[in-house]
Design brief:
The complex is a heterodimer. Helix content of chain A is about 35%, strand content about 5%. In chain A, α1 crosses α2. By secondary structure, chain A is mainly alpha-helical. Chain A has a domain of about 40 residues. In chain A, β1 and β2 form a beta hairpin. Chain A is built from 3 helices and 2 strands; from the N terminus they run αααββ. Chain B has a domain of about 325 residues: Amidase signature (AS) enzymes, CATH 3.90.1300. Chain B is globular. The two termini of chain B are about 20 Å apart. Chain B is α/β, with parallel strands linked by helices. Classes of the chains: A mainly alpha, B alpha/beta.
Chain lengths: ~100, ~500
């Protein structure tokens, strides 16, 4: 499988990355190079193999459902690009 | 005073304990050496002199009372991926410029609890994506090593290249790294230092900037195998804040370094002999086999048939996880924001300008392999091959206690080396990436020099939860190799 510059433009949009038009051609070539290289995985027989999502062999731990953190508004806001009166300030998202 | 900096971590903590040197004097000496190295090596990206001296004074107070932990009073460098409270932490990316965490990573918290003294943050490939340290937003890190008769700048390797350069140049007594595909072991091999990672989950990822979560392993870069064991002893342990942290007690890694390797079965896999591998790498591997034989080990041929599929598998899983993890950098809650015409435009400009080229490439790749219609063909297929690779190791470890391989397919390359395509850079991790895919312990030990006087490493891989055998075999290789070479100080 390979991608076109139009595909790359669409992927960049999905990933919310502004890619200048003049970068698209080079990116398409790079991604196609990698995609061709990883096609060799088709040689591996994986019939009936369970996908491996993690090397962890322990069950996912659960803890008591109670609040263990909080009351740190100023810490949470300390690194915000913009904040006002205890809130994040973000561009308008609802018309 | 500066001679002190060439001591190992084990030796300097003994001197501190004996009050032959104070932690404050040592911290001052290390800070001066580190600052003086900056124009040439550029290994560090953030200092906090007040924090360093406060921690050193606290160590002196404890040492004066005959108290103190494993690392008491030793200045240590921290890869810029770990949150250190109040100190700028950027993962060497412009998108996090100015980010000062209000919390401490579990790994560094454990190190400080054992008396370690924060020296500085070390630069890395942006978001740990790379093997050369050329993509740090603070500029290239330059290796303290140079080829004989040459002044050409060499890579310290990556992504933990700043840490490896700092340890190799005797600017600190050890450093943290993270290893997602080889990012501790490859720079360790390139700089004549020891680099180790434990079983997946042995060292908590909490407070470390997430890259590819199922592959990320924090670990130490150190001057000796014993030092690496001391550091991992301090860094490891169960963390209730991290759901993949191993709920197990930490074995005595330091004691394991003194264990006999007599009678151990050491596996050698023909699949690690790759096309175009320099003759000297092959010769070093054979030398390692001979050393372990002489130490009483039995050498056993093993087969790891899916080895050649490890890198392509990695370059599906890694970008997939990275693209998900890096979705958080949206310019809203922390990090840099580039204002646009509307919300979407702001996201796109923030990420387009904040991320470097390799980071963007990985996010795009990951977005693609996870997108509707391609998920099964790429991502699901890779997860299945991942299990095949794990099974190869499980089969091999039914017959052997450890596997010996070269650490890298070459010595350090020049900083101005041109790679025509990204895959050439990816191939640096051909021997290391398998241990991340399987989540098993692996370390690189300096074992010799190539024809131009540059360090080469050997890698020891063991089964899950058996770091002790890794340290024992690593220590045996270190004893046999007697590697004492140091870079000539030119910085």
């Amino acid at each position: 499988m390979s991608v076109t510059t139009e595909d790359v433009r669409r992927i960049a949009r999905l990933a919310r990355i502004a890619e200048p038009t003049e970068r698209l051609e080079a990116l398409t070539q790079e991604l196609n190079g990698i995609l061709t290289w990883i096609e060799q995985l088709d040689e591996v027989d994986t019939d009936g193999v369970e996908p491996m999502t993690t090397p962890v062999k322990f069950p996912l731990p659960q803890r008591e459902d109670k609040i263990t953190d909080g009351g740190i508004r100023d810490d949470v806001l300390a690194n915000a690009p913009k904040s006002e009166e205890g809130f994040f300030v973000v561009p308008k998202s609802v018309e | 005073m500066s001679d002190l900096l060439s001591l190992s971590l084990a030796d300097v903590t003994a001197k501190l304990k004996a009050r032959e040197v104070s932690a404050t004097e040592l911290a001052e000496t290390a800070l001066q050496a580190a600052e003086a190295s900056q124009p040439a090596l550029n290994a560090f990206c953030a200092f906090d002199r007040d924090l360093t001296m406060t921690m050193a004074k606290a160590s002196d107070a404890k040492l004066a009372k005959g108290e103190g932990g494993l690392l008491e009073g030793a200045p240590l460098a921290i890869k810029d991926l770990f949150a250190v409270k109040g100190v700028e932490t950027t993962a060497s990316s412009n998108i996090l410029k100015g980010f000062k965490p209000r919390y401490e990573s579990t790994v560094t918290e454990k190190m400080w609890a054992e008396g370690g003294v924060f020296l500085a943050k070390t630069a890395m490939d942006e978001f740990a994506m790379g093997s050369s340290n050329k993509t740090a937003c603070t500029g290239h890190v330059v290796s303290p090593w140079r080829a004989e008769g040459s002044n050409k700048g060499l890579t310290p390797g990556g992504s933990s290249g700043g840490s490896a350069a700092a340890v190799s140049a005797d600017l600190c007594f050890g450093a943290t790294g993270t290893d997602t595909g080889g990012s501790i072991r490859q720079p360790a091999a390139f700089t004549g230092t020891v680099g180790a990672k434990g079983t997946y989950g042995r060292c908590s990822r909490w407070g470390a900037v997430a890259f590819a979560s199922s592959l990320d392993h924090p670990g130490p870069i150190a001057k000796t195998v014993k030092d690496s064991a001391i550091l991992m002893q301090a860094m490891a342990g169960h963390d209730p804040k991290e759901s993949t942290s191993l709920p197990l007690d930490v074995p005595d890694f330091v004691a394991a370094c003194g264990r006999s390797v007599k009678g151990l079965k050491i596996g050698v896999a023909k699949e690690y002999r790759v096309d175009g591998m320099p003759e000297e790498i092959d010769a070093l591997w054979q030398q390692g086999i001979d050393w372990l034989k002489a130490a009483g080990c039995e050498i056993v041929d093993v087969t790891l048939p899916h080895t050649k599929y490890a890198l392509p598998t990695y370059y599906i899983i890694n970008p997939a996880e990275a693209s998900s993890n890096l979705a958080r950098y949206d310019g809203m809650r922390f990090g840099q924001r580039v204002e646009g015409a509307d919300l979407t435009d702001t996201y796109e400009k923030t990420r387009g300008q904040g991320f470097g080229a390799e980071v963007q490439r990985r996010i795009l790749m990951g977005t693609y392999v996870l997108s509707a219609g391609y998920y099964d063909a790429y991502y699901l297929k890779a997860l299945k091959v991942r299990r095949r690779i794990l099974e190869d190791f499980e089969n091999a470890f039914e017959k052997v206690d450890a596997i010996l391989t070269p650490s890298t397919p070459s010595a350090a390359f020049a900083l101005d080396a041109q790679f025509t395509d990204p895959i050439q850079m990816y191939l640096n991790d051909v021997f290391t990436v398998t241990a991340n895919i399987a989540g098993i312990p692996a370390m690189s030990v300096p074992a010799g020099l190539d024809a131009s006087g540059l360090p080469l490493g050997l890698q020891v891989i063991t089964k899950a939860l058996d770091e002790e055998t890794m340290f024992a075999v690593g220590a045996a290789l270190e004893d046999s190799a007697g590697f004492t070479a140091k870079p000539n100080k030119w910085w």
